[in-house]
Amino acid sequence: MRKNEARARGAEAGAEQAAAHEPLAPARRHKARFARVREAHQSELAEDYVELIDDLIASTGEARAADLAERFGISPGTVARTVQRLIRDGFVRSEPYRAIFLTEKGQALAESCRERHRLVLDFLVALGVDREAAELDAEGIEHHVGGETLAAFRAFLDRRG
User: Fold this and answer.
1) Helices (H) and strands (E) in the chain — how many of each?
2) What are the DSSP E strand ranges found in 19-161?
């Protein structure tokens, strides 16, 4: 009798645990989700750099590798490697011992990132999130949120007036 009771309890626990989880997505959908996340992680660094380069140019008239290293809290060597990648990808241009400048492609990316950041920030604040916390969260969310979700954020904010 005890074996049957233990089996029954085990089955009940398994059913409760299964009910607590959503059904597992089909493999193709799962793969697509993670591909999107990997893609967002790859573009996140470029987006952060072009946005900061644009901010530095607007604020001080130039963007220097030393300024980027200081503001990101990383080594100048890391900045140099990333800037080389941004040059290769057509987002920035630079000459040895000179400031870093955005190309048209880099400027367009910076503007797009800034708009996406502003929209996510405004949405979080509209939900009642403290502005400082919303700033921190928007910095991460902005790189991963999709176009459909951004459109819903915008529609929500527009309805609020």
Assistant:
1) 7, 2
2) 92-94, 100-102
pLDDT in tens, 100-146: 999 999 999 999 999 999 999 999 999 999 999 999 999 989 988 99
Q: Domains plus CATH for the chain?
A: 28-160 (1.10.10.10)
Residue 91 per-residue DSSP state: S
Backbone phi, psi, residue 92, to 5°? -135, 165
Chain-centre distance for alpha carbon 136: 11
Distance of CA 73 to the CA centre of its chain: 18
Range 8-12, long-range pairs (CB < 8 A, 24+ positions): none
What's the half-sphere exposure (Cβ side, CA atoms, 13 Å) at 4?
1
The model carries a pTM of 0.74
Q: Are 40 and 144 in contact (CB under 8 A)?
A: yes
Kindly list the distances between the CA atom of residue 149 and the CA atoms of 27, 49, 141, 153, in Å, as whole numbers in the listed order.
23, 24, 11, 6
Radius of gyration for the chain, computed over Cα atoms and rounded to the nearest angstrom: 23
| Alpha carbon distances (Å) from 39 to 35, 90, 111 | 6, 18, 20
Give the Cα separation of 51 and 42 in Å (integer). 15
